[in-house]
Amino acid sequence: MSTEPVFTGTPDDWWDNATPIPVSEAEERTLGNWYITKVRTAGDTKPTYRLSTPSRPPNREKRSKLAEWDGDRTSDRVRLLISSAVPEPAWRKATYVLADLEQGSDRRVAWVRKATGRWHCLEDGRRTINDHAMELLHPLPAAFTVTEDLL
Predict the structure, then answer these.
(1) DSSP label at 130?
(2) Torsions phi, psi of 9, nearest 5?
(3) CA nearest 59: which of 96, 97, 24?
(4) Three-state DSSP class for residue 81
(5) What torsion do the CA atoms of 135, 138, 141, 142 make, to the nearest 10 degrees?
(6) What's the burial of 138, exposed, middle or buried (CB within 10 Å: 0-12/13-18/19+)?
(7) CA-CA distance, 150 to 142, in Å (whole number)?
(8) Which of 64, 66, 90, 121 has CB atoms 3.0–4.6 Å from 24's, for a disulfide?
(9) Which of 140, 145, 45 shows the shortest CA–CA distance to 97?
(10) pLDDT at 151
(11) Is pLDDT at 1 greater than 60 in this prediction?
C-alpha cells in the first residue's frame, strides 16, 4: 500500500478539500508543503488552479509582521494541499554559508543570502544562485568575526 497522497476528482474538489491557511502563510509559505492557488481569470470565469511548493524558506520576520497585521484572516486564493514535516536544514536559516564554488569543485567559498532570497558569492559578486542550486554545493552555516587588530 502506497503512503503517497492520491488525489481523485477535479481540481475544484482538491480546492474544496484543501486546508485554509492564514494570509501570512500564503505570502511566506512553509518549505516542503504543497499549496494549491486559485488563479484569477479575466472576467472571473471558471477558476483555474496552480500547484506549487516553495523553493526558499519563509522570511520569519515578514510572516510575523503579516500575522500581526492580518490577524486570523484566511487567504481566499491559497490553501494548503499537502503538509510535509521536512526539517529545515540549518544553512537555510543562515545569513552566511561556506559552500563549494560550483558543483563538483573542491574549492569552498563564502556566500551571503541577500534580501531577495538568492545567495551571492562573496568572492565573485556576479555569481548568484537560488536555494535549489545552493543545496548541491554542500553548504554549512558560517559566522565571521572581525577583529580590530588587523594591522
Answers:
(1) -
(2) 90, -165
(3) 24
(4) strand
(5) -130
(6) middle
(7) 21
(8) 66
(9) 140
(10) 56
(11) no
> pLDDT tens for residues 80-123?
998 886 677 889 889 999 999 999 888 999 999 998 889 999 99
DSSP, collapsed to helix, strand or coil, labels residue 2 as coil
Does 73 have pLDDT greater than 90?
A: no
Output the CA–CA distances (angstroms, integers) from residue 35 to 65, 76, 80, 125, 141, in the order listed: 21, 13, 5, 33, 29
- Produce one character per residue of 24-62: b if its CB has 16 or more CB atoms within 10 Å, e if not: bbbbbbbbebbbbbbeeeeeeeeeebeeeebebbbeeee
Concatenated DSSP letters for 12-69?
HHHHHHSEEEEHHHHHSPPTT-EEEEEEP-GGG-S-EEEEE--SS---HHHHHHHHHH
Specify the pLDDT at position 68. Answer: 77
Domain spans of the chain?
11-82, 90-142
For the record, the C-alpha cell of 9 comes out as 476528482
Which amino acid belongs to residue 68? E
Q: Grid coordinates in use for 36?
A: 494549491
